[in-house]
Amino acid sequence: MQNDSFVFEALFEAQFQTQWQAPSNIALVKYWGKHGSQLPKNPSISFTLSKCVTTTSVHFSPQKKGEARFDFLFNQKKQADFHPKIEQFLDRITPYFPALKQHHLSISSQNSFPHSSGIASSASAMAALAMCIVDFEKQHHPDWSAPSMLQKASFLARLGSGSAARSIAGPLMVWGQSEDFLGSNDQYAIVPQVNWHPVFKEYQDTILVVDKGVKKVSSTLGHGLMDGHPFASQRFAQAHDHIQQLKTALTTGDLDQFIDLSEAEALTLHAMMMTSNPRFVLMQPNTLALIHKIWDFRAQTRRPLCFTLDAGANIHLLYPQQERIPVLDFIKNELLSYCQQEQYIEDQVGNGTQKIPLP
Ligand code: PMV
Fold first, then answer.
1. How far is the CA of 100 from the centre of ligand 1 (A)?
2. CB-count burial class (<10 Å; 0-12, 13-18, 19+) for 267
3. Could you give all domains of the chain from N- to C-terminal order, each with its CATH number?
4. Which atom of ligand 1 lies at the shortest distance from residue 311's CA?
């Protein structure tokens, strides 16, 4: 797929208002390392979540002379620290939708999860904003099919934050060219036409909040450290192997293999950070304590509970829906004391973005 096929040249001036909700996602095979315009150095696959969502409304209006390009409210309040990221996003996507240049955007966003919970919100935020923008484009592109609209939304979201490409649809999305997934490519994420084993349709992701702080290392810096990383080529080759093996686990329902690969990916992501130059450690002592608790629980009970990690200290506990009660008992009795203010967020696999009627 060429980038040119995503350019919508028509220029127009119009008023339009829309609102979309987009979920966060959690990668099973991680994207870490990029090149060019937000292109991944390896393919990744993620569960789309359902409860950790961003809801964004945009009012597009013809831009008046001297007027700012956009204004932005987060939880009904002005939030200037988000402006550079939005500005950069609009700069990157305008070549694919030049009519944006003629419009002012009044953007208002809120998250279902606490902003300062250490849960990455850029994926859901960029995906929700991208959906509002393609919805506007769609009004002037009447013969556009729903799949093409979703492809463009994923393509635009990627330009805001790579992992946001995977927050458009569900229950799983693959981003980055992989021999194992027909149609997969670096430009946008796809929903693979694969019959996933039913156990994964309602898989649970309970996020244990170990550190609510803002990220200590920006993703852009982190991805950049894979350039010239001593283990980079092995890591990228490993991601291809892992995605192939994970496809087997996800279709056969082999939970042992799923657990093995999920934890290997989580720890490899952190191993890459610990061995880059400069090196950094994003796990906290409580992250490690929780990992050992999870391993002990699994060894003692034989229940299929495992973890994955994002670029931070929080733990994502992954388990089948039918294990919910014993796992929640375990969390409440043994894990909460390792969480900041005993905070955890229960989420599960979901189906992606949806349009929300305006009030
Ligand atoms: O989308 P970015 O640039 O914030 O990168 C996110 C990378 C990880 O969350 C660590 C892994 C992933 O694939 O989501």
1. 27
2. middle
3. 4-196 (3.30.230.10), 199-348 (3.30.70.890)
4. 10
